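Board notes (copied after class):
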Amino acid sequence: MTATDPVTDRAALRRRLAAELEAARARTRALTHDVFGPDEPDFTRQHSPLMSPFHWDVAHIANMEDFWLVRRGAADTDLVDGVREDLDHLYDAFTNPRAGRTALPLLTPAEARVYGERVRERALAHLDAASFDERRTLAGGFLFGMIVQHEQQHVETMLATHQLRAGAPVLHADPPPASVVPGLAGTEVFHPGAEFLMGTGDTEPSGEHADRGAGPSSSEEPFALDNEKPAHPVRVADFWLDAAPVTNAEYARFVDAGGYDDRSLWSEAGWEHIRAEGWTAPMTWERVSRADGPPRWFRTSFGVREEIPADQPVLHVCFHEAAAYAAWAGKRLPTEVEWEFAARYDHASGTTRRFPWGDEDPTPEHANLDQRHLQPAPVGAYPAGASPRGVHQLIGDVWEWCDSGFEGYPGFEPFPYKEYSEVFFGGDFRMLRGSSFGVGTPNARTTFRNWDLPIRRQIFSGFRCARDA
């Protein structure tokens, strides 16, 4: 059989999806059962009202897979019975706010793990038999790719819960690579305006043909989620963009200059929030006085207290903090359109690429992903991941706040359920782009759209600045 034989292609797709399902599950185990005993209080404690207890996440991951892969991913059949349909109401993220999840009659950690193992066994059986037919949910293995991404998203959420957890460190990783591009922090890159293709994929079929569409075209990311579609032309004006995310050293200068006390730098909502919360620096930062010199800033990272690495991107700042810094620096935050333009558009060829470096998938030489290092890398550590114009670390390290709200693209259609994107359109959300060190590689796309409330900073969020040309 040739490399383009459909049977060969389906076998390769099965192997890829099986490997990605296992990689996501390995990360789940590494953050839960591998570090906590089944009866350890940290497994079931709610470490913050903003986050779920770990055992809720473990069972929710299994329930989502049960719902979509076991019941709806059956090969060449109609719906089949799930493993535990009786659990759906407990692990519905939309109807059960995080702050109240500990009050629910949840599965124990041991029961949640067994549930996940049973679901995965059934899901892999469906994957082995899947024909990847033209049904829109199965074409190209979409449902399986969606579930891979869903688990990876919850892995990052659980990693953020670990950051909020008190106590001795339980997670360990190698340090990130050193910078090999000196003098990058604080520099800017000019981007001439142009029209580019934002988003991915063709306009999806609608109406009576919606469930039997023709599957992903060669021009789109096969596992892109609904809010990334459809691809559409956008005209961008000239602008300048920071060559790297704002570093700890740069942000410390803003704090030390009285940035948190200067009302003129803050929006009304931002000022009210930092005053109400008593924020005077990024999350976990602490100023330590010294007898032999000026004070130094320390942070706590996954239970380890350390002096802030000056050349790493600042971490755990909310949108309001990012916007205030930008105002202090005489700049602004980029829009979502500008960010994607800088990450994807190649002026030399006039084409929209998949990644800043080209069309090949991310490797450890391109970006800091998959919690390999448990912290951002210094700016300039990944020259292979830079854009043609010399913008670094657009993928990995920290999510980057953009000054745009969350709306659907022209021609948007919810798929396969409205609660993933559409119900959040038009709220007080702000966009985050670029992934973080905690994002799994399957989710690390230049088209991937993350969003959160502008007051949130428990996420792995940073930013870079822009300004008009």
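Comment from the instructor: The chain has nine helices and 14 strands. The two ends are 55 Å apart (CA to CA).
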